[in-house]
Amino acid sequence: MKKSFQPETLMMSHGYRPEWSEGAVKCPIFQTSTFAFRSAEDGKAFFEVAYGLREKGLREKTGLIYSRLNNPDMEILEERLKLWDGAEACAVFESGMSAITTALFEFLQPGDLLLYSNPLYGGTTHFVHSVLTKWGIEVLGFRPGASRAELEQLIERSGKKDRLAMIFLETPANPTNDLVDIAMCRSVADQFGAPGRRVLVAVDNTYMGPLWQHPLRHGADLVLYSATKYIGGHSDVIAGACLGSMELITRIKTLRTFLGNMIAPHTGWLLLRSLETLKLRMEKQTENAQVIARRLVAHPKVANVHYLGLLTPADGESYTTYRRQCTSPGAMVSFEVRGGEHEAFVFLNHLKLVKLAVSLGSTESLAQHPATMTHAGVEPAEKIAFGITDALVRLSVGVENAEDLWWDLEQALDKIPVPEAVEMAEMV
Ligand SMILES: *Cc1c(COP(=O)(O)O)cnc(C)c1O
Q1: Whether this model's pTM surpasses 0.70
Q2: Is residue 334 domain-shared with residue 217, that is, in the same domain?
Q3: For all residues of the chain together, what is the average pLDDT?
Q4: Is 120 in contact with 170 (CB distance < 8 Å)?
Q5: Which string of b and e fits 9-21 if b means at least 16 CB within 10 Å?
Q6: Distance from the CA of 205 to the center of ligand 1, in angstroms?
Q7: How confident is the model over 329-343, as pLDDT tens digits?
Q8: Where do runs of H (alpha helix) occur along 51-108?
Q9: In the prediction, which pLDDT does 59 show?
């Protein structure tokens, strides 16, 4: 009987054999652009498969040809990433944006309708609004927390319900942790699809993955990652990934070959190294985040905290979706200080340990101000609708000692001046 190991066990070995590389225990960096064929017949056979001129034989391995098509660091990384999401196939890219844009370009055509959840990552928003629309694709956003009836109404009213091609989601929403029900979107997609015209559900799972949320299990067709975040985890590399069925990922890989935005060998190798500690890091990060979130709630300078770990049955739908869809509250905490931009900036400017920087999911804790930084491009009215207020701060909690982190956050919160009215009230 073959024992099946957990992903964290397989991250050190899966897809690589030391005998391929002089016994090297670790997969080397295959820093090469091209691969020598043993014979002309081999070269011919490799190209026949790579160019789809014939089906690959049952026991035939895909031959290494040229690093834009394939490279061991890229392929082993794809094999390992598949394990976390239980995906059939994976394609890795030189950035999260290239994974997202390649998937959107492959599956959308002029005249199609794209429905997406708000707010999306800034780069994705820009691409959807400024690039996809230029190619004649209609785009329609829905608010976080929208009901099924609202989605149906939006699609009906667009006058393009028979051209709905994809529902693109980010859940939990950045930076507010609002949830979108993936299974509900699957069902809406099926309702507007037709035989031979499947409406795809794509989920940018950067905020929770690949450990704490597995969208494919809830009906998604594609899972996307900025591997720059948790997967890379050390703030030293930009990379991305897309996972799904063999059929869909083969199409994405074909487009990747011609766009040339595949991952580089060295980037792939760095991520192989990162994956070995992925679970350890993410577990420690979420443990720290739970401590921080609870203490923030109790702090007098904090008006409110958005953290999945604080949801209770009283939160209704959000709580049910959270319990069904996520396996952990994660390490992203956002909160409003009492006051506005000035008070938020006083807090950020006084942090000593936590770095004032965008990005997330890394070993070191980071803090930023969404309204003027990551979400600066969002229209003022939409900022209000999405809960991105001037007082909002986003924290990505790292693996530091939780008490050290709290010491830093508390001393910076204490620098926020007490509003005069409150001070007066306390004096009497
Ligand atoms: C960072 C990020 C991206 C973009 O990824 P890059 O690796 O920077 O290209 C996309 N989506 C989300 C949710 C992100 O956080």
Answers
A1: yes
A2: no
A3: 95
A4: yes
A5: ebbebbbbeeeee
A6: 10
A7: 999 999 999 999 999
A8: 72-85, 96-107
A9: 84
